Amino acid sequence: MSRAAAARHGSSRPDACSVLWDDAQASALGTAPLARFWVALEQNGPWGAKAATQSHLDPDLGRTVDRMCQDAAGRFILIRRPGSHSDLRNPDPRKVHTQRVYLAGGLAERPWLLEADLDDPARLARLPMDALANGDAGAVQEALPEAKRSPGPILMICTNSRRDLCCSVRGRPAAAESASQRPGQVWECSHTGGHRFAPTGVLLPHGQTFGRLSAASAVAVLDAAMRAEVPTQLLGAMYDRGRSHLAAPGQAAESIVRQQIHEASLLALSTTSTPRPGQENTWQCRVNHIDGRHWDVEAVRSPSGDDRPQSCGAEPVPAWQWSVVNGSGR
Question: Nearest CA to 164 among 26, 6, 21, 329?
């Protein structure tokens, strides 16, 4: 590994999955986790590979909320504030201990983010998940009256080391440094997928997902998000994993069109995708702009020609990538 590459990878091993994918300059297009909405619950202490049931959160509750979210095409995730994570099983009973929860919905149209501090996380099991999936913030607030509109966006950076070491080795420093610059807006989170692109981050309320973040680019994400925008330096296949409410072909198509037309606004584009009849691994996509323009493109999933591990310690397997071709716009 060159000196420049070593500096970029920090303390990561040269055979770490994210280092190998970095060195190959492999595309991150179309790799965002699928979710029509997000439920992010603060849970301190250690997390296992399956954090919802392997943490200090009651495992039955974690299993229930996780299943409820999955059944409604959403995502349940654990978060914690960057820094040291003392293993406190028995916090001081004389104090009222609350856990922050963020609820993000309306991702496909006008995204919104609610936040609340809960003294009993079991209340999440009574959330109307269909309302979250349909973007009905009013119904969610009726079920959880203390939930208020969040004053700004948040960025969740994966640091789930039990799922993959790259997320801890590369994610935790990025989370800690960016949190020191934007306090209260950066959270460590459990597994979101795509650790080969670590550090990875999910921006709420938009569900926009990034790979290969640094502390500086994480701060740029939050600053741009205050204007409902994406930093222009993170457009394109190296960093833009897509928006989570879209299927993978639509994610890839939208990201490429966004880069080609230099569209920073997270509210400007909407995308549909349908399988192309008779052509395996090919989808016909239409990317619509709020100003009336649209682009018809094909998203094609094909082998990249390289074998690389999907996770640290795993055997190399054929790597796939998305390409976007035959674009026409008007």
Answer: 21
Q: Report residues of the chain scoring pLDDT below 50.
A: 1-8
Fold category of 1-245 in CATH = Glutaredoxin (3.40.30)
Domain ranges within the chain, ordered by starting residue: 1-245
Instruction: Please state, for a pLDDT cut of 90, what percent of the chain lies above it.
Output: 69
pTM reported for the whole predicted model? 0.91
| pLDDT on residue 161 | 60
224-261 per-position pLDDT tens digit: 999 999 999 999 999 999 999 999 999 999 999 999 99
- Asked whether 97 and 36 are in contact (CB, 8 A), the reply is no
Angstrom distance (rounded) from CA 48 to CA 174: 21
